[in-house]
Amino acid sequence: MAGCGGSEPKKAAVPAVPVTASSEPQQLPPTDSRPVVAAFGDSISAGFGVEPGKSYPDDLQRLIDAAGYQFRIVNLGVSGDTTADGVERLQSVIAVHPAVVILEFGGNDGLRGQPVTESARNMRKMVEALRATGAEVVVAGMTLPRNYGPDYIAAFDKIYMDVAKEFRLVRIPFLLDGVGGNPTLMQPDGIHPNVVGAELVAKTAMKYLQPVLAKLDTTRLHR
Questions:
Q1: Which of 3, 14, 82, 112 is deepest in the core (most CB within 10 A)?
Q2: How do residues 85-138 score in pLDDT, each as one tens digit?
Q3: Fold topology of 34-216
Q4: Among this protein's residues, is 43 annotated catalytic?
């Protein structure tokens, strides 16, 4: 054998790193760098009783996109929350660095008959903390069923007017305007909007939110 070749057969070269599909760099999903509009509130924001993607903040995102504004909604609604719970959750909102916060609280306070002064104090705490971060705050007004009595309802409604006036905030007079009390637009509980109702709630919110977005969004698409 030694006289035939004069040397040992050469070994086949083996690539140091096999070129396979698994060795290619993975494509990470793009980061959504649009400024945040936080829908911070209770079950109305959370979309209680409707399927995913059908809450009013979901519908509001579609309206924002259609109008060409470069903002993304972050839904921070938690069903059952009171204004006191909102105060406790402030850091979770601040953590997403919102440019705008739609503050939707108070309904559960009122339904439980909590003191109006306590609810108003909590609303002010939330507004002060959010404003300190530089966020614009839009106050979403609520009201109560008529059987809660005119005096309590009047004091409750005044919370939103007083807070908005004190801090010079944009106020949605009644977030469920045209929806609340209409059985065709509400779920059987009479408290939460159904899918069609949520779409109308989003339109109401957009009416008051749009001037705020227009002021902040310098990259708006002209359509």
A1: 82
A2: 999 999 999 999 999 999 999 999 999 999 999 999 999 999 999 999 999 999
A3: Rossmann fold (3.40.50)
A4: yes
